[in-house]
Amino acid sequence: MKMNERIDLNCDLGEGGPNDAALLGCVTSANIACGVHAGSAEIMRRTMELAAAAGVGIGAHPGLADPAGMGRREVSLAAEDASDLVFAQVALMKIVAQETGLKLRHVKPHGALYNQAARDPALAQAVANAVRAVNPKLILFALAGSCQVEAALAAGLRVAREAFADRRYRADGTLVPRNQPGAVIEDPAQAAAQALRLVTEHKLTTIDGAELTIHADTLCVHGDSPNALKTLRAIRESLMKESVEIVMVAGASK
Question: Is residue 251 included in any domain, yes or no?
Fold first, then answer.
């Protein structure tokens, strides 16, 4: 391992899970649902306050208007509609943050919106443009190696390249769809091992046994997973044993 390796840990929160307060003790960035795929203005406010008290970076987590499917079902979405959807949610989160005396730091699209924008350049640009329209100083969290990273940089945003500790990958660098066996890593020890290898070697083994190189600035664990708290604690322990610094991400610019 190189000396002084560092990584941000992020988690999706404000989605109705029971462990948000405990999870905030394990992460450095929180992606808070904006009331469309999950959450509400009151949940946003309460989660922001908890995040601020824990010294955790506050982020908007905009998703598709599909609460029944938790925003994880893909839909056909025009670029203009995607831009409007993201802008409205991030702008609302910014207002709620300001009313609470806090500051929005980053944006991470949720679920199907995130995955579709990671492979569709038009959607990626729409998402980046919407974030920039709200505040060009916001950091956009984007799947490492995807066109969303390129779109964010092209739009003049800072970007945090993201990888997932609790998800399996395909050889092309995309996530295995949740409806396929093995898509989610449920064993905290396995997720911790994947996280450590991502940080120290910038590699992981895909679901079909291929070796994939990924350079990430932030690692995600899904807050609504049953073992999320155990997983984050295992990851932190594993990283700290190897002297990896767990710090709030700054994001990189072009």
Answer: no
183-196 confidence digits (pLDDT tens)? 999 999 999 999 99
Q: How far does Cα 91 stand from its chain's mean position? A: 18
Strands 158-164 and 203-205: unpaired
For the record, the structure tokens of 244 come out as 């990896």
- CB atoms near residue 218 (< 10 Å): 25
pLDDT of residue 1: 43
Q: Model confidence over 94-140: pLDDT tens digits? A: 999 999 999 999 999 999 999 999 999 999 999 999 999 999 999 99
As for how many domains the chain has, the answer is 1
pTM above 0.85, yes or no: yes
- Gap between the Cα atoms of 210 and 208, Å rounded: 6
Measured between alpha carbons, how far is 95 from 107 in angstroms, rounded to an integer? 14
Find tokens 């995807």 and name the residue.
Answer: 146
Q: What is the CATH number of the domain that holds 79?
A: 3.20.20.370
| Torsion, Cα of 113, 117, 118, 124 (10° steps) | -140
pLDDT at residue 151, rounded to an integer: 98
Helices 228-241 and 188-201 pack at an angle, to 10 degrees, of 40
**pLDDT by residue (tens digit) across 75-105?**
999 999 999 999 999 999 999 999 999 999 9
**Hunting for tokens 């989610």 — which residue is that?**
184
> Residue 39 is encoded by which pair of tokens?
């959450």
For 237, the 3-state DSSP assignment is helix
**Domain extent for 32:** 6-246
81 domain-assigned: yes
Q: How many C-alpha atoms does 219 have within 13 Å on its Cβ side?
A: 33
Among 131, 6, 105, 89, residue whose Cα is nearest residue 51: 105
Which two tokens mark 60?
Answer: 């908007």
